[in-house]
Structure formats: structure tokens, C-alpha cells
Predict the structure of Alpha-galactosidase.
Amino acid sequence: MAKIAGNLALKCLHILVLYVYVTSVVLAARVLPVHPYLQSNEKPISNIFDTSKYGILQIKNGLADTPQMGWNSWNFFACNINETVIKETADALISTGLAKLGYIYVNIDDCWSGTKRNSKGQLVHDPKTFPSGIKALADYVHSKGLKLGIYSDAGVFTCQVRAGSLYHEYDDAALFASWGVDYLKYDNCFNLGIKPEKRYPPMRDALNASGRAIFYSICEWGEDDPALWAGKVGNSWRTTEDINDTWASMTAIADINDKWAPYAGPGGWNDPDMLEVGNGGMTYLEYRAHFSIWALMKAPLLVGCDVRNMTAETFEILSNEEVIAVNQDRLGVQGRKVYVYGNDNCYQIWAGPMSGNRLTVALWNRCSKPATITAKWDALGLDSSITVSVRDLWKHKFVSANSVGSFSANVDSHSCEMYIFTPQTETASFGH
């Protein structure tokens, strides 16, 4: 009887230990990260940035501490892709030095696959355009120190009517992992009218079960306000419709993406679509504004031009290390539009906090004529007495050692000037 009682007590102890362990795991899983400002004695230089949603991200696959950088085939090539183009693009990212600046993903968009699955129900590459297969291509890209991205759709077909992954999530994720894929862009066509909140999580679960860390880029075009739910599902989520290579499209998309700023942060980012820089539809200054605002918004920096044949101006924009550093800043707070004035609100100030108690500020002239744009301290959330140094990120030099109260600059039409404000107490070296 004593032995039975002892065994019973031992079993109860085991159950209690198991309960405590499971409870601790569940509680640990629900503990969300706090804003980095709260983890140190450093107080933000500005007080206007809402970070109340910061830390809601739960996908926890170890990716996307900063916004993804790389290249995607769609904006320039659309369906005119093949394995030679992908290999040559990987080579060009290396030879131009863009890879060293962080552009490491080589992402194949729609049209890489056949129109139907094979007899085993698997996705297959188009034998005419990708005769060596995706695994061989991944091996080539990996040999360059880069990562390969693939494309599929949370529907029965892709947007170009190739086989989609809806109801094939686990098989397709396992196949992608076996090929060595590092990134999945997951589109929204032919979705049978099923809510994206139901269609996108199964692929998250499948990717997590695949045994390979695969960046999960949700592309549902902002239809169901993904910033409200996708932080628990993917590493980035499209907040807008497709961009096109025009000033009107770019500015409209920037405004839409701005709405969702509080929801982005390390682990998951708002995605206003890929870069059009270098594709020819906008001017040099418009492209520079495009790149500046995307960097400030912590948007993915995915080059959309033919990097094998870039102009010097295109390369100058894409390779600006100081602007890239804003995008990749470890604090990870999305900058946003903080003040507008003038006709149709075309004089705009965008800003965002950065690590090191700094502030990035963009003066964006969306008017048709050059103008002087002034950012006042109260618009930036700065105390009126604070003194800052101002570094111009396009001129690559300090333009003020001790600005107080406001900062003004001449800005060309459809141009954007970008700066780092640093409190004067911080050490700064002035000059070039």
C-alpha cells in the first residue's frame, strides 16, 4: 500500500513538474518584446512617434531583424525570366558591390514554374526557361554568398496562371526547403474568395515545419489591412496595390503605407512594394526621393531594375550607404509623415527616430516648383531648446553644427533631401 501511495505521489509530482514547465513555456511564448527605448537609460530625442504596437510580432523565425534587401525580377522582366538572367543578376550584385551593401536576396517572381503540377502533385520548374532546375540555381546563388527567393500564390493559381500553393502548403514548403530556397513571396491571385487571414497562416506553419529558415513575404496587396494581423504570420506584408514606375503611383503608395507605421518593427515590416529606381519612368530626383522615403519608412529595399545594365545615376542612388543605414538601423522604428503645408500639402516633412538618440528627417517637395522647406522643432517633437548637428545624407557632409528651433533647406521640385539630426552633446565630426 505504501508502495502504491509512493508511486502515486511520484506521478503527481511528475504531473506537477510537467504542468509548471508547460505553463512557463506558454507564458514565455506570450511575453512580447518591449521597445528598445525602454530597455536602456536612453530617452528618445523626439516624443511624437507612436510605438504602441511595437513588439506585437510573434513569428519568431529569427529573420527580418531589419528590412530585407535584395532584388526581384518582376518590375523589369515580368515573365521574361530564365536561369541565365538570374545567374547574371547574382553576378552583377557581386561585381557592382551592391551585395556588400546588403542586397543579398535574389528573388525570382512569377513564371518560373510550369502551368501544372507533376504526377506526384509537386510544383515543377519550366523546363524551357529553367532547364537546370531551382536547386541548381540556388546552389549557384549560394556559391556567391547570396540567398535565393522563390514565388508562389495563396490561391489555386499564380497571377500568371501557374499552379498555386493553396491546399498544397506543406508539400510546397518542403519542396522549397529541399531546393535550398531562402525567401518566399506569396501572392494573392485566384484565392477563391477565402479571407487572407485564413489562407496565409498555413504557409507560415508549413515553412516553420520545413526545417529551413525561409523569409516569408506576404503579398495580399493590403486588401484586408494586413498590418493588423500579419505580424503574427509573416516577415513582411504588402500594405498597398502594385507599384508602377510613375511619380503618381510612388507618392500615393508612400501615403498609404504611412498609415500603418506603428505596426512595423524587427521581425516584420510594412511593404509598400519593390523599388522602381532605374526603370526609366521617373527622373533622377524622383527616384532619389523614392529611395529616401522607402529607406525612412523601413520598407524592404528590393531593387526592381536590371542591375546588369545600371546607369551611374541609378547606382549612385541604390548604393548610398548613409541612406541604407537609416533603413537598416537596429532600432527598427518606421519613420513617417509628421507635417505638411503649402498647396495640396505638397511641402512635407517625414521623420523617424534612430538608435544613438538620433533623428532622421526628410524634406520632401511634392510641388511643381523648387521651394524652401522648413522643419520646426515642434513638428518633429523636439524640445524647443535642443541643439542638433545636421548631416546631409545625399551630400555626405554636415551642413549645420548647431541648429536650434528649426531647420530649412532649398528643395528642388519632386525632390527629397534627407538628414540625420544628432543632439549637440553627441560627438560629431564636421566636414566631409
Remarks:
- The mean pLDDT is 89.
